Amino acid sequence: MKAKGNILMKKRLLLLLFGALVPLLCQRAHAQVVVIANPSVKAASVSKDDLRDVFTGASSSLKGGSQVTPVLLKDGAVHLAMLTLYIGKSDSAFRASWRSIVFSGQGIMPKTLDSESAIVDYVARTPGAIGYIGKSAPHEGVNVLPVR
Fold first, then answer.
1. CB of 95 within 8 A of CB of 36?
2. What is the pLDDT of residue 45?
3. What are the pLDDT digits (tens) for 38-88?
4. Rounded Cα–Cα distance for residues 134 and 86 (Å)
5. Measuring CA to CA, how many Å separate 77 from each of 81, 91, 126?
6. Residue 102 to residues 39, 42, 94, 99, 137, Cα–Cα distance (Å)
7. Maximum Cα–Cα distance for the chain, whole Å?
8. Does the pLDDT of residue 13 top 70, yes or no?
9. Coil, strand, or helix at residue 68?
10. Are 73 and 112 in contact (CB under 8 A)?
11. 37 close to 43: Cβ distance less than 8 angstroms
């Protein structure tokens, strides 16, 4: 009986520790993702809801009326942080939902690029483009949209 109680206590302690670490990790990931837009996008910031709607295909505009087209990173830590923080889906669930949109004829899959520098270049030269990069990535020629 005593061993069973010790195991339960250890499990509770681990859950408590995990519960304390998750918000810290999310804050760090949040600080590492920067949302960028072509200068033609007139929004000064973007809400989490707008960001989720644009990147899941539910909307093609921001609340201020700017028409936007999302561009995605193919994979990596920044891509996963974006999905976790703002989309609320795993990569496989995110791609499956886009495949459903594409196969139903309701939209086309967003352009997917291999690197943050390719995202910056594409967003800088494509009116209405919106994407995301890591905080430390150079981002000349694009506007940074703080997420509120």
1. no
2. 95
3. 999 999 999 999 999 999 999 999 988 889 999 999 999 999 999 999 999
4. 14
5. 6, 11, 24
6. 28, 28, 13, 5, 31
7. 67
8. no
9. coil
10. yes
11. yes
Distance CA 94, CA 58 (A): 13
Q: Which residues pair with 61 in a beta bridge?
A: 67
Answer yes or no: are the C-beta atoms of 123 and 115 closer than 8 Å. no
Indicate whether 26 pLDDT > 50.
no
Cβ count near 147 (within 10 Å): 16
The predicted model gives 19-48 an average pLDDT of 74
Dihedral, CA of residue 30, residue 61, residue 106 and residue 123, to nearest 10: -60
What is the pTM for the complete model shown?
0.78
Confidence of residue 30 (pLDDT cuts 50, 70, 90): very low
Show the tokens assigned to 2. Answer: 């005593």
pLDDT, position 96: 96
Question: Residue 116 class from Cβ within 10 Å (0-12 exposed, 13-18 middle, 19+ buried)?
Answer: buried
